[in-house]
Amino acid sequence: MAESGANGTLEWAVAARPIPGESVSGDQYVVELTETETLLAVIDGLGHGPDAAAAAGKAVDVLRENAAEPVEVLLVLCHTALARTRGAAITIASISASNGSMSWLGVGNVEAALLRGASPGSPSASPSTDMALLFGGIVGHQLPTLRAHAVDLQPGDLLLMATDGIARSFTQDVHLRAAPARLADGMLERLARPTDDALILVARYGTVVS
Ligand SMILES: [Mn+2]
Prior knowledge:
The protein contains three helices and twelve strands, in the order ββββααβββββββαβ. The protein is globular. By secondary structure, it is an alpha+beta fold. A six-stranded antiparallel sheet has the order 1-2-12-11-7-8, covered by helices on one side.
């Protein structure tokens, strides 16, 4: 059910559905590989239905075409492209292919969490969670001054990105070793709100062995 994929250092999956009664979703995502980084983004076009989907679609196009740009630059490009749309909430993470450094930030309320401590060699006994820094605003209408944060990923770290159609408890009770597709499907099934589009992206960092 989930859409999924992997490259040399990342395994990911997305589970999503529109609000019941709609055929298109304003919740969309991008996973784009360039030679230097992997770009992951989740977009929530304001409201739902075709106008929300159109706003989100414009952001998807901009992100795919400019995937190697820094995350702050990507949000500015999206802001310009979405000016005549409803606008969107967007959260972006860009992971360096060479050293595993991830830079991430968001505008609006697409939450992103990094769940750590799942690595077999991890020094920390208990998992910890980092949340992406989210700035207030609406991409396309009101863009605040942006500053990305960087974090060094360790093998086994799990990145979760969810629109507000997923209950905020999505970072809790996560089985850190489970396959991303299974996690994403399970979260959509258990946590999707009936009143909104819903999308969850799950990505695990670390060499993928299959
Ligand atoms: Mn929403």
